[in-house]
Amino acid sequence: MSIVYLNGSYLPVExxxxxxxxxxxxxxxxxxxxxxxxxxxxxxxxxxxDRMRNGLAAIGIELDWDHARWxxxxxxxxxxxxxxxxxxxxxxxxxxxxxxxxxxxxxVEPTVFCMAFEIPLPQPADRxxxxxxxxxxxxxxxxxxxxIKSTALLGNVLHFQEGHAAGNNEILLxxxxxxxxxxxxxNVFIVKDGVVATPRLDHxxxxxxxxxxxxxxxRKDGTIAVEERDIDRDEVLSADEVWITSSSKExxxxxxxxxxxxxxxxxxxxxxxxxxxYAAAKFDY
Length: 285
Fold this sequence. Notes:
The protein is an alpha+beta fold. It has 2 domains: 3-118, D-amino Acid Aminotransferase, Chain A, domain 1; 133-284, D-amino Acid Aminotransferase, subunit A, domain 2 (D-amino Acid Aminotransferase, Chain A, domain 2), CATH 3.20.10.10. Helix content is 27%, strand content 28%. The strands form 2 sheets. Strands 7, 8, 9, 10, 11, 12, 13, 14 and 15 form a 9-stranded mixed β-sheet that branches. A 6-stranded antiparallel β-sheet has the order 2-1-6-5-3-4. Helix 5 (209-221) crosses helix 7. The radius of gyration is 19 Å and the shape is globular.
């Protein structure tokens, strides 16, 4: 039986209750994070909490929780759910009002909900055994503040479903200018002639924690060149390698885009090298 945290209490998930007037339920008015934990060791805890706090500030939710308090809840959830390999989901909504009204209510306490769920171990950084992903291509139709990790994910869900319905693992999105933004639930990297590139951050792109860590790790190592810049559709289709990255997938190699093989259709050597560097340093964040 899974144990969750809800507004100060730890209880079985079957007993967790929120008001139907909670603004997270009515409007998707909230912020969330997912932090991987392997045998009690969390990946990117500090950057995840920084992004959570930034997101809450961006939408005007006041919650006076510091890193230590979040860490305490995460550690307790891991212990109460038996340890192992877990994803820790953190969710803060604006809270429950006594009516449905678009404007922010006053004097309402935020709802804090957290849970842990089993996740698989990342695949080994071996290009000969790694699972390659297949992705679709689509036009990015989401809202214009994708840099905020909002719980209002319908736009992402519809795009992800588009790729899923086509029999693919994900979908790569391009804006009206034909520039790559991100995937339905991931950031995107390409490799050409040994150089790794990813779209620069703006309002169209979530500042992914795995993205941040990969860029930092590769720059510190210095053996693989990295760039943050605009990337168009032709560059994606002619890339030697394509990766999709997230906290749950870490670095997933893409072997097919819109029915066309990426490079030679096999997982690439730059992915293997970068994955090994990431695996060696990911618990340092």
